[in-house]
Amino acid sequence: MRCSAALSLLALCAFTSAVTPSRCAAQVDEQTRKLSHDIFQQLIEINTTDSVGNVTAASEAMQQRFLEAGFPEEDIYLGGPNDRKKNLVVRLRGTGQKKPILFIGHLDVVEARRDDWTSDPFKFVEKDGFYYGRGTQDMKESDAILVTTFLRLKKEGYQPDRDLILALTADEEGGRSNGVDWLLKNQRNLLDAEFVVNPDGGGVDLENGKPLAMDVDATEKLYGDYQLTATNPGGHSSLPVPDNAIYQIADALQRLQNYTFPFELNAVTRAYFTKMSTIESGQTTSDMKAILATPPDEAAINRLSENPAYNSIMHTTCVATRLSGGHANNALPQTAQANVNCRILPGHSLEETRQDLIRIFNDPKITVRYVNDAGEAFDTAPDRKALPPTALKPEVQQPLEVLVNKMWPGIPIIPTMATGASDGVYTNGAGMPTYGISGIALERNDVRAHGKDERIPIESYYRGVDFYYQFVKALGAN
């Protein structure tokens, strides 16, 4: 399976030419532009964080739009495990000649503190050619694009050769109620499809406004959280001792910071660096070729690893994301904890990585426990590994090639390994090949997903609206 996937993806990479990139604006009429703007704004301004937000409110708002557009009630499903985490599934009926296509998009967003941001993260702000707000990159822009596309197709009376299914879901970013997982376990018939398109991955890379490549996520790293805990009897702060729980955690994290997981390439990342070596220049090109050699060049690996994006493609990465400790300002800490978040290369399990952390910390007084998506800690981790790469079906590859060459002439389509994680882990695991394909173009140095002042270029958004409308129509007309 790995070999066939690699061959398919390498064939996909062969599509490239040296044509000057198109700089034209998106071909979106004013009515569509307004519709997609209003949907985008509506979604951004509904807080869907796990702590205080409400995914159901966003699902219900989109449900109302579909009902008003004439989608039959029997083709719309709203449901979930609780009142705050209801998912929306909408079906656009086709001729039934082929099995359906499923499009997935998560409605929840990462937490955002008003004090950290220049503007209110839950207000849709237009400024200096950008739309700002939590979810503008991850991934309410794509949710809005998918909703807009389905509404346009319904209005046109478009009938594809198969049903098109849209699932807008909860808790991809964390929480106890992952929507795709819940739907597969409780309403599997609503999601059954030949393959899945997930715009929470992929997209067009820009360098100073110039399109470089269209990325298609063909595999992804495995997500894992681990809880570090140090305990001791504590005592009066006027009598410090070396055996301090906070110091123990700090020492362990210092060891982790200084550690680099082994270099590895797989079929997808090898194809990625092969193609990127023809796009980059100078030392970077030389280094990419050198890491593909047998044996790979260590100096080249080290130089490329200075770039966080390339480093995360070549290595498992683990980083501290949360700290807590102590119980009083005038007492030695009795307990200190840290959360370490790992993104694990395919082929390695959650438990294997937990054992790696224990070895790296090299401190028997620190316990390392696995933390699941619901925040529950366990003494051991599952033996689960990332799924193998997904071979790109011709009925996806061919229309994608045509459309990319039309909208961004000359750029290659490159298979990528997502260094984050997505709901594709659930749909792939359910036997439905899943492809991370986005029509959004972003500067490589301006990726703000999960970060402060998240934003998207306005024209990039509307080009994404145009891209997905044409792409979905092409997928439904094979």
Describe this structure in words.
It is a single chain. With 478 residues, the protein is α/β, with parallel strands linked by helices. The chain folds into two domains: 2-219 and 392-475, Zn peptidases (Aminopeptidase, 3-Layer(aba) Sandwich); 222-378, 2-Layer Sandwich (Alpha-Beta Plaits), CATH 3.30.70. 35% of the residues lie in helices and 22% in strands. The chain has 15 helices and 20 strands. It has helices spanning 2-13, 30-44, 55-68, 140-156, 179-186, 188-191, 245-257, 267-276, 282-291, 298-305, 308-314, 350-361, 394-407, 424-429, 458-475, and strands spanning 76-79, 87-92, 101-106, 125-127, 130-132, 164-169, 195-198, 203-207, 210-220, 222-231, 235-236, 317-325, 331-332, 335-344, 366-371, 377-378, 413-418, 434-436, 441-443, 455-457. The strands form five sheets. Strands 1-2-6-3-7-18 form a six-stranded mixed β-sheet, with helices on both faces. α2 packs across α4 (140-156). The longest helix is centred in the C-terminal third of the chain and has 18 residues, at 458-475. The radius of gyration is 23 Å and the shape is globular. The chain starts with a helix and ends with a helix.
